Amino acid sequence: MKPNFNRNKAFKIFFGSVGGVVLLGILYWLIFANHYESTDNAYVSAPQLQIASQVEGTVSAVLVAETQAVKEGDLLFKIDTTESKIASEMADADLVKAMHMVRVAISQAKQRKQEYDRAKSDYARRAELKGVAAFSAEELSHSKTQLEVAEASYKQALENSDGLVNPEDAAKHPDVLRAQAAAKRAYVALLRADVKSPVDAIVARRSAQVGQRVSPGVPLATLVIGGSMWVDANFKEDQLAKMRIGQPVELEADIYGGKVHYKGRVVGFAPGTGSSMSLLPAQNATGNWVKVVQRLPVRIEIDAEELKKNPLRVGLTMSATVDTKNAEGPALQSMDKSVAIETNMYDEQGVKADEHI
């Protein structure tokens, strides 16, 4: 015998199940999901360094290609050194000449001092015997004149030697210091004909070619520092109320799909929205105004170890989800400080120039 179908009971079970699912969804949102803000309008960024020529000359060698990884100190380009070698040799010759001239001036100052001391001694001896028949008044006057001439010659010689009377102090003379600075500058220019990478990076764009004539400031290549990447996530303005510095972020790169997840944290907020910071900002006071929800770039720091395992490239799209549960601290706080990017390469060139001098 076929059992009777109870429609009322079936509806009650169905709506009860739907209500339970809705209630569970509301509970899940209240407990877990209501403190997350997410966006897929996020892009990978990194510091970009423009390598420019520091000297004038012709590019004689190009040793890198685009997408190539380089280490700090690796040679990127060579600029012909014919002109810089000539300039350095001329500056070295001027330095040697200046040193020689100063030593001559110091020697003359020493000689004039001896003459002055002798004239002063002669005059003092004659002045003590003034009135004695051995020396007449005319001889005493002549001795005084010689003393004055010797003193004037000594002062002039001291002025020429800048007050230096010891040959070992010749390097302290202004003429030598000036020639030394010129020689150092010329030698540094010679060293800078070898264009090297200041940091570990990747060649993003190479714009110099062999035979190209370059001058100081002409861009040769653009480098991207891959180990210092971050994500600029553009959140809507109504998503920012609970965002704070230091909040954890889960990142997903479209290039890897859902297989790879990165851990990050909020480190700063941009000072203005994308539209206000654009080249041609919107003029909302013209009268023809339509409200558009704005987006504010939020900088997110990526864990460096995860970047090593799964590398990223500048401009790749990301999805970012910020956990806003911990809402302590002021909203829209700027980044406190960033990791310094520095190199000792240019200091080493100065040391080599000092050794050359």
Task: Please work out how many helical segments DSSP would assign.
Answer: 6
Distance linking N and C termini = 114 Å
Q: Order of SSEs, N→C?
A: HEEEEEHHHEEEEEEEEHEH
What proportion of the residues form beta strands (DSSP E)?
A: 15-25%
Shape: elongated
Estimate percent helicity: 25-40%
What is the residue-mean pLDDT, rounded to a whole number?
82
Using the CA coordinates, give the radius of gyration.
40 Å
Main sheet: strands, sense, barrel: 6 strands, antiparallel, barrel
Assign the structural class, choosing from mainly alpha, mainly beta, alpha/beta, alpha+beta, or little secondary structure: alpha+beta
Poorly predicted regions are: none
Strand order of the largest sheet: 1-10-13-12-11-14
Total number of strands: 14
What this model shows, in words?
With 357 residues, the chain is an alpha+beta fold. The protein has 6 helices and 14 strands. The strands form 3 sheets. It has a 6-stranded antiparallel β-barrel with strand order 1-10-13-12-11-14. A 4-stranded antiparallel beta sheet has the order 2-9-7-4, with no helix packed on it.
Based on the model shown, name its key terms.
357 residues; alpha+beta; six-stranded antiparallel barrel; four-stranded antiparallel β-sheet
